[in-house]
User: Fold these one by one.
Assistant:
Number 1:
Amino acid sequence: MRQAFAALFIALVFALAACVLAARRSYRPIGKAVALLSFALIPPVIGNLLLVLSGNQTIALIGCYTYFIGMDFVMVALLRFTFEYCNMQWKSPQLRLAVYAVLTLDVVQLLLNPFTGHAFDTEAVVLEGLNYYRLVPHIGQTFHRVVDYGIFFTILLIFFIKIIRSPRIYMERYSVILFSMIVTGAWQTYYIFSRTPIDRSMAGYGVFGLLIFYFSLYYRPMTLLDRMLAKMASDNSEALYFFDAEGRCIWANGHGIELVDIKGQKFDQAADLLNGKFGFREYTDKEWTHDQILGSGEEAKYYHFDKKSITDEKNRFTGSFLSIRDCTAEQLALAREMYAARHDDLTDLYTKAYLYECIEKELQKHPDRQYLVIYLDVMDFKIVNDVFSTAYGDTALIRLSDWIRKNLSKESVYGRLGGDTFGIFIPKKNFDKEKIEKELSHFSVKEGNVDYSLMIHLGVYEVGEKDKEVSVMFDRAHLALTTIQSEYQVHVAFYDEKTRKDVLWSNRLSAQLNDALKNRELQPYYQPIVDVNGKVVGAEALVRWIHPTEGFLSPAVFIPVFEKNGAIVEVDRYMWRSACEMIREWGDRFGDIFVSVNISPKDFYFMDVSYELQNLVKEYGIDPSRLRIEITETVMMTDLEKRMKILSDLRQAGFIVEMDDFGSGFSSLSLLKDMPVDVLKIDMKFLNKASDDHKAKTILQNIINMSEDLGIFSLTEGVETNVQHNMLAEMGCRLFQGFYFARPMPREAFERFLDEGDKLIVTE
Ligand code: C2E
Ligand code: CA
Ligand code: CA
């Protein structure tokens, strides 16, 4: 009996020591408290071990002291553990101090016992033929019991209250400790009062220590976790199905039940129902994902499947779960977003980026086909916007895109490159140049009371090297287009070697301009302007480039190049200055003849035209009325009011303003009546276009009459024959300019011409 208990106590000491070591290593805050408690339980067990083994009184007494003082430590440790385990704080530091003071007092009075004998004694009883020293309690021992029981019952009470107040799930956690404390306490009490020789309740203390160790450090409230997971699963927006190892569905959340319509919680039907709805899948041990669309068009539903397996610690398959997400809304939003990113808002055609992407794909798909890349541009679209309205402009673009959609073959791809430009990628065999040219060169857009024909130009690049970047292909198509940008007769231009050379050539010209101005390679030529009597009254200054390598260059060749890059400003400044110089030099030598200079529409963008001209005449000290200003209608197409103001300023300053090339573009007589101009310069060239001679005459007569009525002089240029001259004179035209009188000529020739002029001109 003794040996058995001794062995049990020794085993307990080892077990508790192991708990101390393990608990100390725990990362959880309660680890320290558990370690202390396990440690504090060792001395009472050792004390009892000594009592059990003791054959003499001294050892028995040592056993008793170890036991009692040890119990005081157990109380300290138990208090600390309780506070930690129940997540509590001392009500006040004073209370804590008082409790510890009482415990200390107990230790002191127990230590005094060998001298005073007031606490307890031992008496020998014979047990299994050996002396066993049993405790004889006195008053001090009673104090000890009151203290320890007091604390012990308080702790029981704390746990009891905790159980009552905590949610059910946590009750287990507290009740296990409370229950083991009650058992141990009762057992101990039974021993104390029954005075049985060997304190068996010590075994209870040991077990109590082990229970605490387990519940504080290793126990997880599984019911709590279960509930949390179940809650998450039920609330999940996905449909969830849990399968056991045999692939039988054991549970599904609300969405899962709804999705396949599981009736009456019969979850084992789920696999069949799922197979019925989505087609056969396996619900056993494999992990897989799958995307599926049910239905089509607007009704289409998108589902994402995700199947996961669960294995135990030995990696044996224990079950699986399937989640099905209805991603229809996401897919639709994504599709909408994709669509918006790929389609132009206004025309609903592809955007540039997406068009390029599609073209790349087409090229990869059909590497053997021959394709054309077309750059389509509306001429003077800015003017359309300004003159009519942006709303009309938008309508025009929409009509144009509708035309493209309707008339281009299925195999072509097209989109809006930006503004008024469109890109088309079309198999060469499907490109009907005649049709496109016919329908697009004058593309009528009728909207409200506006009926205007857009003039559309196409630059075409035949795809040669398929691995060229699409942007380069469009650059080339655009280059081709620039070669006909100011043309009214040609609407389609193909990129070829010549285009490339032309572009290189224009770039070279631009680079040479500064030097050319310095070296006086640019020269003014003068074309006489005569009155109705054939008397030279002025001249138009027209620029020529006597190029060192290219020879004589017509302005028709280089002016458009410089208009495009803005260098025209330099040319015009130079020409105006030359004209002023000329006027000053001539003085009255040939009477008060005037010089007309040309003003490019671009000049208005790059400089203050009125300011520059006024400064020039001041600088040269000449009469502004001798420097005539030729502007074209295009100048008035943008910023109409601002430009009118500039012209009015110029007229106020004494300049004479001429409307050049009347009849070429937008020619509107109604616009003319508000226009601050003095002279209308009608170009015969444009009239010759009118096939019907009679019609041309009528138009001309009307223009002349109308301008006269408005107090505007008419000047006809491009007069090539005597017949024309006579007819115009008869119609009431005041001034004339044309090859019939003289071609533009250099300064010296013009001066000679002036000297002998009158003789040269035939008038009737
Ligand atoms: P424009 O202002 O309409 O000039 C009249 C053009 O008609 C000149 O061409 C002239 O040589 C040509 N011409 C004159 N009489 C006749 C005729 O009887 N029959 C025919 N077929 N043509 C005739 P040019 O000199 O080649 O100039 C072409 C254009 O270049 C000019 O047209 C003008 O727009 C521009 N230009 C010329 N010099 C300048 C300049 O200094 N500055 C600016 N901005 N443009 C200029
Ligand atoms: Ca002119
Ligand atoms: Ca002209």
Note: The first strand starts at residue 120 and ends at 127.
Number 2:
Amino acid sequence: MSKIKDYIEKHKDRFVDELIDLLKIPSISADPSYSKDVLNCANAVAKSIKSAGADNVEICETAGYPVVYAEKIIDPNLPTVLIYGHYDVQPADPLDLWESGPFDPVIKATKTHPSGAIFARGACDDKGQFYMHVKAFELMNNLDKLTCNIKFMIEGEEEVGSENLSSFVKENKDKLQSDAILISDTGIIANDTPSITTGLKGLSYLEVEITGPNRDLHSGLYGGAVANPINILCEMISKMKNENNQIAIPGFYDKVQILSDEERADIARAPFSLKKYKQALDLSDIHGEKGFTTMERTGIRPTLDVNGIWGGYTGEGAKTVIPSKAFAKISMRLVPNQSDEEITQLFTDYFLKIAPKSVTVKVKPHHGGEPYVSPTDIPAYKAASLAMQTTYGKTPVPVRSGGSIPIVALFEKELGVKSILLGFGLDSDAIHSPNEHYGIFNYLKGIETISHFFQNYAELLSSK
Ligand code: BES
Ligand code: MN
Ligand code: MN
């Protein structure tokens, strides 16, 4: 058995216990009532990276939650890998759908994880995944096998849009200087089908507010005579797409790259079963843009979705009322060449244009981010691919994801460094949902694969 595997076998219980301790901290960045916990979590992360063997560990203040930075510089002439991850998590609600406490981690076997998974908010997104890097670093450092420099940058605001991270990156370019950025905050196709994420979508997220009458009204006395903001909002939302499920905002697709037949054939090569996809979600049919496959819809086509809609009376029983206001939160996922600022503007123009005079409309942009595509012909990708080849016995498939990590495009723009998205989660791990979990197999396999990445990357660069 290799020394890497040996080390993992010997220390795996401790690796799991340490992750469980981290998962007990409710570091919910969206909810200010958890701010102490988020700060505690930053401290815990800093401590764990320090005890793994890093030299300069800092908790860097930002206008929001701090960034944990750490480094191990073996030799400035060696290549440097910057590891990015996030210690903040999504809110846990709806709480009543959790089978165990979201911050009370338990290990249970599932269909996709017969050897056990850790159930807790953040188990997969992203505590379990960034912690694999801390352990891979510990392992390589203790085995004296580290032949590249390592920097860590673990932030606490990813789940709320990383708004303060861009100035941190701009102000710390020297500190973050590196040859490649390695991130585990995505997934693989299946535990027997390794893959590497080669694309992330951009994002435009906004909130709309429709106002009708100046107060809630009796729906009998006024019904049919004044605009009902909820009815109007629904009509306006239905105008966002046409009968082919294409987005109807003028100019929306203007800059979208059209893929060649070859590129589409590449996408179709990734293993995918529509039957299993539907089964996993209890769906009798799928739904999406005409002319594209499911993998294309999620990977390379832009989308628009309502994330939440509210207004009027939603309590027990019935209340006859025409509400004064209605609201919705809407996200658009963007693909290469679409700029989030431009798309936010196009949405706003169109939304205001289709509003009837009987209501007033406000559009409030939340956060955004640009899309990212990772090349497959650079040393860092090759090092990741080779690492998976070693640990899974199969060459990983490149896959474009529908998810977003806005800071990745900014890393490229500000630092000029490409990121490799070497994630190990499964779609069934329920990130952002009740009962989020992360397979212990995936956790340990990730630690092993990342260790090989460090080794491969240093070797590939030094043999150039
Ligand atoms: N880790 C996810 C993104 C992700 C998950 C990408 C799986 C690919 C596969 C990240 O934490 C996330 O949730 N991002 C948000 C965007 C953010 C601005 C709130 C998203 O994609 O909704
Ligand atoms: Mn994440
Ligand atoms: Mn997330």
Note: The first helix runs from residue 3 to 23.
